[in-house]
Amino acid sequence: MADKPSFLPYGRQSIDDDDIAAVVDVLRGDWLTQGPTIDAFEADLAAAVGARFAVSFANGTAALHAACAALGLGPGDEVITSPLTFSASANCVRYVGAKPVLVDVDVWGTLSPEELAKAVGPKTRAIIPVHYAGLPARMDLIHEIASKRGIPIIEDAAHALGARYSGGIVGDGRYSAMTMFSFHPVKHITTGEGGAITTNDEELRDKLKLFRSHGITKDPQKLSQPSPGLWYQEQVLLGYNYRLTDMQAALGRSQLRKLDQFVSRRRDLAAQYDGLFKGMAGIRTFEKREGHEHAYHLYVVLIDFGRFGRDRASVMTALREKGIGTQVHYVPVHHHPDFTYLGYKKGDFPATERIYAQALSLPMYPAMSDDDVVRVVSALREVLGA
Hints:
Number of strands: 14
Strand order of the largest sheet: 1-9-8-5
Distance between the termini: 29 Å
Order of helices and strands: HHEHEHEHEHEEEEEHEEHHEEHHEH
Shape: globular
Helix content: 25-40%
Number of helices: 12
């Protein structure tokens, strides 16, 4: 009897002996948190994306919260972001008391510059474009709109570590004040949970570091009085405990050394998927965009489920029975009951609704084999009757 094929999740971490050894070295050392490995990881990350600074956080959501706080956003302010994203992209705005304003996406699933230009208003204080699935938004056009009005940009690049856009690497800061990365296990590199902000602004760097550590400092220049001794510190603003540990940073450093390898493999897998889906009626892949290099955190196909007489839920269940995990990215932000206060309704963002109705994320992670891709596509065709 043949062995049952292994289960293929839609995403998973790639951990090897070097990663494990790096964490063990920290466990055997003197610092488990707030130690030198944090600084080393941040320096490595900044160098990898071409930014001056990187500040690590407990997770990507915490990093987004800190970025909003560092810009001084608050009640009465509006921040534009995409409805086709995980809710953290909008929640971070709410955390500081500001209001999220949603703007529809383009055919690639990223924030539409054309719709953005119509939505910017007198209360707009920041823009958070989301690099959906690993494809950078059209940042040159978004930056042009924002810069004319002096509006800062926070790039939500949770999906896009290793991606490139016209003229540079995502995270280098050429189009934004700050860029957020996530290191959840399904992302390009992992620290277990974790996130970071890259920036070229030293003042923002300092605000981010203060915010992630309770708002407490020993810096003589920030104290309200001369320090009476080595123990003395002051809380100078309301911050949070959003720190990454040295153990996580060690894992991140080890993973970061393999980033190019990981991203290259994801692109190879995506190319194989593209080839197998080419010309298949009822299933579309996202168009390529000139001048942009996709990092393929996700591989999303758009399926006309009605054409096949199937609904998405039954397709996902049937695939799971064949050992293939899938996911939907995302339930649009305005569909969540907790966001009804914004006054949006289903149908307000046609491009987002079209993508959501047809999107299915297929397995995508570096440890997949070429045969795994064939298996996924064959199973999908069989389930759909394509």
